[in-house]
Structures are given as structure tokens and as C-alpha cells.
Write a structure and sequence with these properties.
This protein is of the alpha+beta class and 168 residues long. It has a two-stranded antiparallel ribbon with strand order 1-2. The protein is 18% helix and 14% strand. A hairpin with a 5-residue loop joins strand 3 and strand 4. About 10% of the residues have low confidence. It is elongated, with a radius of gyration of 35 Å. It has a domain of 63 residues. The N and C termini lie far apart (113 Å).
Length: 168
């Protein structure tokens, strides 16, 4: 007749073979020591309650590591200007932060796309491309029959940086 194994004896036998490389972690839960789990007296004070934020909201901590909600509106850039707090940026702040030149009072738009990058904004809607100095809207003059109008057009396109005129 087989001897019945008592729980205490079974635990002793398992612990006898437990150790590095045995594949048995009898004193762990899912491979984690008991100290890695929260006690019954723990609190969740280090967590942010879901009620603190919702859609279109980010969490920020400005000075004391306490997270607060910041609702972000449509078409809004969020950032932190030197010695400032995390907030929605104005267009001027965003341009300054990105190192872009100041824009004219009215942005220059082509086919509903505001042009940036190699487009230079100037005063009163002036425009320049590829580093050219922004100039006002150009008027092409000259006779089309003598190609004077074509030469004037090429000169003016080159002046705003759209082309390089290498004609002779």
C-alpha cells in the first residue's frame, strides 16, 4: 500500500529540488518574489485617476511632478518655451521654437496649402522661394511678339527664386 503524501512532505520535497536551472520556482508567483507584489495596505495615490483626463487631453506636470490635465484644441501645437510651462503655443511661439522666420500678416496659401520650408514670408504678402528675398506681386511687361514679355517673365520668376534663368 502506498504511503499517503502529506502537504508538508510534498512542499519539503519540491523545495529540495528547487533552485537555479530547475525550472521550479516554488517560492515565487509567476517568477516574482513575494516582495514584488503589493500588500493589502497599499494605496493607488501614485496613479492618475481616469476622471482627470478625457479625449483630446494630455497630462502634464509643470513644477511639482503633479500631473494635471491639459485639453488640446483642434490644430494646436503644445510645447514649452524657455522657463515656461507646458501649454498651447501661439503661431509666433511655434515659429520661434522651430527657428522659422516671422511670417507676414497673411500667410501665403496656394491651393489651400500654406507653404513653408523654402518659402520666405515677407511684409504685406511678399513672397520668395529657395532663399530669395521676398518681393511683391510681379507684373510682366513687354511685347509677346518680340519675346520681351517672355524675357521679362523669366527675369521675374528668377527674382523670386522659382527658376534659375540660364537663357541666352
Amino acid at each position: 500500500m502506498r504511503d499517503k503524501l502529506r502537504v508538508a512532505d510534498l512542499l519539503t520535497q519540491i523545495l529540495a529540488v528547487d533552485g537555479d536551472g530547475s525550472g521550479i520556482d516554488a517560492d515565487k508567483l509567476d517568477g516574482v518574489e513575494g516582495s514584488g507584489y503589493a500588500t493589502s495596505g497599499h494605496s493607488h495615490s501614485d496613479y492618475v485617476a481616469k476622471a482627470t483626463y478625457d479625449a483630446n487631453t494630455i497630462l502634464k506636470a509643470d513644477s511639482d511632478d503633479t500631473p494635471t490635465a491639459l485639453t488640446v484644441g483642434e490644430e494646436t501645437l503644445v510645447g514649452r518655451i524657455t522657463s515656461g510651462v507646458i501649454t498651447a503655443l501661439t503661431a509666433a511661439q511655434a515659429r520661434g521654437l522651430l527657428g522659422l522666420t516671422a511670417a507676414a500678416a497673411a500667410d501665403i496659401t496656394v491651393n489651400d496649402c500654406t507653404m513653408e520650408g523654402d518659402l520666405a514670408h515677407g511684409a504685406a504678402g511678399n513672397v520668395g522661394f529657395h532663399g530669395a528675398t521676398p518681393v511683391a506681386q510681379q507684373t510682366v511687361t513687354g511685347s509677346t511678339g518680340s519675346n520681351a514679355a517672355l524675357q521679362d517673365l523669366l527675369t521675374k520668376l528668377a527674382n523670386i527664386g522659382i527658376i534659375v534663368d540660364s537663357t541666352t
